[in-house]
Write a structure and sequence with these properties.
The protein is mostly beta strands. It folds into three domains: about 160 residues, Immunoglobulin-like; about 180 residues, Sandwich (Immunoglobulin-like); about 200 residues, Sandwich (Immunoglobulin-like). About 10% of the residues lie in helices and about 35% in strands. Bound molecules: 2-acetamido-2-deoxy-beta-D-glucopyranose (9 copies) and copper (II) ion (CU).
């Protein structure tokens, strides 16, 4: 009998790989379960866009396998590296309460899993549910090493909206025909900007707008009159994207794995690292509608792939040869469309954010051009006769050679400093100018600087975009925390005029700081460990757009990080 039940559940899990609602209803009724996964990181030959390439994957899949769990479950993933490259996996949005060792960013919380090695990630989804994703967090491997992570509410806890008929995961990606490791190496050696992606993808499929790709299309079959929950994830490397469905409205009900007040819109924008859950009602006439992904080009000097990826929102009963109804997408640089959605994001319930602040940091974020030190400037200094870089408070972050968490825990000196500044070195018109016009000063300092926070301190960050080289929307992601987005605006932050929402701001882990503007966020530093804060546009992160918070232990075992796991990789 027990065997039959197991077989039945196995059958359910096989028949329902993406729409996992049913599985949950029949699943374990124990309050907390452990979910085991086996990730083999391996290269795989794939044929796309008229080409065959070797790409790095998990278990040979693109996107990689989805992880399913329920709130408070423990997730255990054994990662075995069968490639010649270094690997780590980050569980994006998971706050890793007292489990910083399993967070994943290379040289921040762990050394990479080297060729032939394995490491078992083991963490609990403490009070967290919603749409997450996992991705590699070393070099540019996450371009192909990514997948969804869906965490359902506890058994018998309903969604705060009418249950959808079906759920679908929609992962936006970027695809390159050349080897990504080679592109990364060549780009960083050139000092210039990266090449644009060859295609955008939806669940790994570029759709019919690209060569040899007519049939390489993701399709959802929908029943007229039903409502669908789409779990949108932007796993792309370098591009922010608009997403819309022809003739259909999107009702946002969750952002970064936290419920929001329902907000209905024609289009949404997701920067890399952002997730949104939307409800879509299949209430149009029977036909084939395109779900389209296009770039949001906030910066001037960036080279974007300007061909949309298309997936199919396909009504059952539509004639197989019917043409796709084309989706209307905003203009490439439609800042208003972005602002409209941001304005619509409100936490579902009243939260009442704390008003007293213990640590108030003002952090400038933006690009730089460093002086050329190469003897072959034509090869290595392709950006305005210099080298592109990026910084926070004018410090361009350099990754150390050993993990900062390990160095901190074992009191090993020398790989980082604790002097990340609370404010930029100069206050000037950040958005419109460089600090010294003549000579035009675009330099930044290099460093591996951290900011130490006492356990429990109430932190406010003002993130201010600079226009030193180019203004862009930067999706800033913080590990180990979610934060309240209490305000944002264009221009330079002005404490006299800034308006804050302390009543129902969204609780997010990635904030798109508006192009030429600022954002204000607050969180309580109650999770000890070493936490990376960085731009989730991969090239900006490579150029140094990041810094590290060290949050000290508090009192007793409940406020202290346990010792490192025995299989933690070594450098
Ligand atoms: C995972 O962590 C839990 C809590 O620390 C521990 O009890 C369990 O043995 C660990 N499991 C594995 C496979 O490491
Ligand atoms: C499709 O292939 C043609 C011929 O090789 C090429 O000129 C064109 O740029 C390709 N289009 C795309 C979108 O890659
Ligand atoms: C379809 O549903 C959307 C909400 O998703 C609603 O705004 C719209 O008015 C509906 N359209 C029709 C034709 O019923
Ligand atoms: C991008 O594509 C759209 C739609 O095809 C077109 O209208 C627009 O002019 C293109 N923009 C650029 C900068 O190529
Ligand atoms: C890492 O190690 C290399 C080689 O020993 C050294 O040149 C480099 O400065 C080190 N980087 C950091 C940030 O410590
Ligand atoms: C950043 O640091 C560099 C190097 O010290 C300096 O030249 C530049 O003026 C600083 N920029 C700002 C905005 O403070
Ligand atoms: C900082 O590092 C970058 C490359 O990592 C280099 O191009 C630049 O010259 C360095 N700047 C300083 C001031 O050392
Ligand atoms: C630690 O936290 C758990 C769960 O929140 C609680 O039950 C327990 O009493 C706490 N222990 C201490 C020593 O504070
Ligand atoms: C992998 O990481 C180790 C430890 O940091 C480093 O020594 C090695 O050079 C890296 N290997 C590759 C292929 O990047
Ligand atoms: Cu950025």
């Amino acid at each position: 009998m027990a065997n039959l039940v197991i077989l039945f559940m196995l059958w359910l899990s096989m028949t329902c790989t993406i729409c996992n609602v049913k599985l949950m209803a029949y699943g374990s009724t124990r309050r907390v379960s452990t979910r085991f996964y086996d990730f083999k990181v391996q290269t795989k030959r794939v044929t796309k866009l008229c080409n065959s390439n070797d790409i790095v994957t998990v278990n040979g899949m693109l996107p990689g396998p989805a992880i399913y769990a329920q709130e408070d479950d423990r997730i255990i993933v054994k990662v075995t590296n069968k490639t010649p490259f270094n690997v780590t996996i980050h569980w994006h949005g998971v706050r890793q309460r007292l489990s910083c060792w399993y967070d994943g960013p290379s040289y921040i919380t762990q050394c990479p899993i080297q060729a032939g090695q394995s490491f078992t990630y083991n963490f609990s989804m403490v009070k967290q549910k919603g749409t997450f994703f996992w991705h590699a967090h070393v070099s540019w491997l996450r371009g192909t090493v990514y997948g969804a992570m869906i965490v359902y509410p506890k058994t018998r806890v309903p969604y705060p909206f009418k249950s959808p008929y079906q759920e679908n995961i929609i992962i936006l990606g970027e695809y390159w025909l050349q080897d990504l490791q080679q592109i990364e190496h060549a780009t960083l050696a050139s000092g210039g900007a990266p090449p644009k992606a060859d295609a955008y993808t939806i669940n790994g499929h570029p759709g019919p707008n690209y060569n040899c790709s007519i049939n390489d299309i993701y399709q959802i079959d929908v029943i007229p009159g039903k409502t669908y929950l789409l779990r949108l994830i932007n796993a792309g490397l370098n591009t922010e994207n608009f997403f819309s469905i022809a003739k259909h409205k999107l009702t946002i009900i969750e952002a970064d794995a936290e419920y929001t007040k329902p907000f209905t819109t024609d289009t949404v924008m997701l920067g890399p690292g952002q997730t949104l859950n939307v409800l879509v009602s299949a209430n149009q006439s029977v036909g084939k509608y395109s779900m389209a992904v296009a770039p949001y080009k906030s910066g001037k000097i960036v080279n974007y792939q300007n061909i949309s990826a298309i997936a199919s929102f396909n009504y059952m009963g539509a004639a197989p040869d019917s043409l796709y109804v084309a989706a209307k997408l905003p203009k490439l640089d439609d800042k208003l469309a972005v602002k409209t959605v941001m304005d619509g994001l409100r936490s579902l319930n009243q939260v009442n954010v704390f008003k007293e602040i213990d640590k108030n940091l003002f952090i400038t974020i933006g690009l730089n051009v460093q002086k050329c030190h190469s003897k072959t400037p034509k090869q290595n200094c392709q950006a305005m006769n210099g080298v592109l870089a990026a910084s926070m408070n004018n410090i361009s972050f350099i990754h150390p050679n050993i993990s900062i968490l390990e160095a901190y825990y074992k009191k090993i000196k020398g790989s980082y400093t604790e002097d990340f500044p609370d404010a930029p070195p100069k206050f000037y018109d950040f958005v419109n100018g460089a600090p010294n016009k003549i000579p035009y000063d675009t330099q930044a300092l290099n460093g591996t600087r951290t900011k130490v926070l006492e356990y429990g301190s109430r932190v406010q960050l003002i993130l201010q975009n600079t226009g030193t080289v180019n203004t862009e929307n930067h999706p800033i992601h913080i590990h180990g925390y979610s934060f309240y987005v209490i305000g944002y605006g264009t221009g330079n932050y002005n404490p006299q005029t800034a308006q804050f929402n302390l009543v129902d701001p969204p609780y997010m882990n990635t904030i798109g700081v508006p192009v030429g503007g600022w954002a204000a966020i607050r969180f309580v530093a109650d999770n000890p460990g070493v936490w990376y804060m960085h731009c989730h546009i991969e090239i900006h992160q490579s150029w140094g757009l990041g810094m590290v918070f060290i949050v000290n232990n508090g009192k007793g075992a409940n406020e202290s990080l346990p010792p490192p796991p025995s299989d933690l990789p070594q450098c």
